Each structure stands twice: as C-alpha cells, then as structure tokens.
Amino acid sequence: MTPSGDLAPELLEIIVCPRCRSDLLPTPNAERPQTLRCSGDECGLVYPVRDGIPVLLVDEASHEH
Questions:
Q1: Contact, 17 vs 58, CB < 8 A?
Q2: Are 44 and 24 in contact (CB under 8 A)?
Q3: pLDDT confidence of residue 21
Q4: For the chain, how many structural domains are there in total?
Q5: Residue 47: which CATH number?
Q6: Residue 59: strand, helix, or coil
C-alpha cells in the first residue's frame, strides 16, 4: 500500500482471485479502488477493498451483476 492508502501497482500485479486464480481488476477507479473484480469469465466475484486493504475471502465476495 502506498502512503496515501492506494493499492500499490505491484500488489495488483501479483494478487489473484482465491477462487479461480484469475487476475483481479480494480473498479470503479484504478487509483482508489473500492472493489476488485475477478477477470475470469466463469467466476465474476467482486472483492471489497476496506481502508486500502483488499479482502480476498470468497465468503466476503459478491457476484457481479
């Protein structure tokens, strides 16, 4: 995490969806993401980002609509 609380680009390069191992994409704003969306076509889970920390727990994720 950067000093401003944003997710570091290096972190976004290495974290993956814990369910299907696809990349996670920041939404809606790449600079201060509030969620991370799984890029897997079959999965589609959306993980929350709370206080600048990604919560990568399948139980905490929601399905994209």
A1: no
A2: no
A3: 97
A4: 1
A5: 2.20.25.10
A6: helix
pTM to 2 decimal places? 0.81
Residues 18-52, buried b or exposed e (16+ Cβ, 10 A)?
ebeebebebeeeeeebebbbbebeebbbbbbbeee
Q: Counting every residue, how long is the chain?
A: 65
Token pair for 24: 């996670």
Q: Is residue 31 part of a domain?
A: yes
pLDDT tens-digit readout, 9-63: 899 899 999 999 999 998 876 556 689 999 998 998 999 998 888 999 999 999 8
Whether 2 is in a domain gets the answer: no
Q: What share of the chain is helix, strand, coil (3-state, %, to 5)?
A: 15, 30, 55
Examine the pLDDT at 4 and tell me if it is beyond 70: no
Spatial distance between the Cα atoms of 36 and 60, rounded to a whole number of angstroms: 12
